[in-house]
Amino acid sequence: MSEIKKIGILTSGGDCSGLNVAISAVVKAATLKNWTVYGIHNGTEGLTERPLSYEILTPQNFSETPWAKTAGSYLGSLNKGVKPELMDEVARRFGEGVRELGLDAVIVLGGDGSMNVLQRYCSQAGIKMIGIPKTIDNDTPLTDISIGFETACQVCMDSIDSIETTARSHHRAMIVEMMGRDAGHLALQSAVAGGADVCLIPEIPYTLDGIIKKLEAVKASGRTYALIVVSEGIKTENGEMLSLGKNMIGEKVHGGIGDYLANLLNEKYNGFQIRCTRLGHVQRSGHPVYGDRMLATLFGAKAVDLLSNGQTNVMVGLDHGRVDCYPLKDVVSAGSKRVDVHGVYVQAAKLLGMYIGEI
Ligand code: F6P
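Above: the input record for the complex with 6-O-phosphono-beta-D-fructofuranose. Below: its predicted structure, written as tokens.
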């Protein structure tokens, strides 16, 4: 028997396409149960800062605006991390915020990092939580896929297609650097679908010679251009992780390996002129594709259904086409989901002759 009357919903971590579809689904399903939905602004900040920042959400917020079908987060999000020494204090303020609003449970749209942090806040403050996985990195464990991943793949694949036209005109090898943090899902799946010649991901070591050999083979085949996809999380050949700066708590932010490799390859190989494009935050945009809209709708509806049936402290997930849920403590202990180097995408890449590293 559900005792829920008021719930909070927030988006945490890097935004992505499909978040608003999920928020809208939660609001619709919860409103039908006569629950009040508090949309918490700017990730956890709406509850940890004072004054509290939130708004009451109704289906009209989404039906009478284009919000449900646009990328980004209607509520705003936060991707700045928390210093370990401040965790307990922030958790305390979060708990106070939830109690001040009288929320019976909180639904969190987040990736693996947010599940970890929010699970800690909620368990420390005795708050019921349901997690909904979202991230363009697709590294949230215990779910086949997270909201936002498919749209990001679409953006990346379209970018490969766009870059191919100029690569062809100028007879160049073009490097496209993609996000994904320490997981290569986004780069790998976009490279396979986009027909790249080389794809480098953090899970598989590579050599410069391996890349050059592939470029030579492309040239020998008579093709006058080549496409190289690199994931931002790969290291240099010497094992160094490049960075474009630090986030607000001083952690290094990935980026720059594409330009680094372009310079190095231009020095060591003159078969093609090499140029690099770092796609950057455009990867978090894009009109949500069918797969993300469906996933976000299924996950949003499931989250409300779980709460209504008295189930909490779980994350919803997709398991071979079935919407299921998993204890948050298992999600946290599973860590980040990496590319299966024996999986179908790596296998397809190899069968297509792509250089994917030393495997
Ligand atoms: O986790 C999503 C993500 O887009 C990563 O792929 C990327 O490394 C990171 O966020 C970028 O974070 P920020 O928006 O803080 O630059």
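Notes for the reader.
The chain is about 40% helix and 20% strand.
The longest strand covers residues 172-178.
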